[in-house]
Amino acid sequence: MHAVRKKTIPSVTMRVRLGDSELEVSGPSDFVEEKIKNFLAHAPLASKTGSSSSATTEGSGIETRAERQGRPQSPAQFFKLCSPQTDNARTLVAAYFLEKFRSAENFTAGELREVIREAKVPSPRNPSDAVNQNIRKGLLMTAGDKNNKMAFVLTSDGEAAVEDMQHKSKP
User: Fold this and answer.
1) With contact defined as beta carbons under 8 Å apart, do 63 and 56 qualify?
2) pLDDT tens across 106-161, in order?
3) Distance CA 152, CA 144 (A)
4) How far is the CA of 134 from the CAs of 44, 99, 137, in angstroms?
């Protein structure tokens, strides 16, 4: 018997966020491109000042309002902006990134490790200790459970500490 080979169509997944509007779509690349173009053409883009912005697709990339305003689009960009030097600082920056740029209500130590890995910076030698140190300093606090694992959130002091890192690293 001969095995029948089915022709598979490559599938892609893309997520685009403009302001409060977000689209995540999966499928063949032409389908995904069509849905993203439609989303970009119809997504409300009111800025904080009430004026509207627009997004464009040029070449292979999609320029979003956030990119034009210099907002980091990846953990690596954000870590470069903050320049955290210690395990505790990297953990805190990862927490801030999850809350502010990925809209996480809370996060686990594993999610923090993943963001640090995505940023391509050294991971804490002892991630649990880095989280606990930030809790002791009042920069993080526990927030119940998430998927049967302890969850955490930033405190207002933690937010201020990361925002201070951003200001100190600017020329």
Assistant:
1) yes
2) 999 999 999 999 999 999 989 889 999 999 999 999 998 998 999 999 999 999 99
3) 7
4) 38, 16, 5
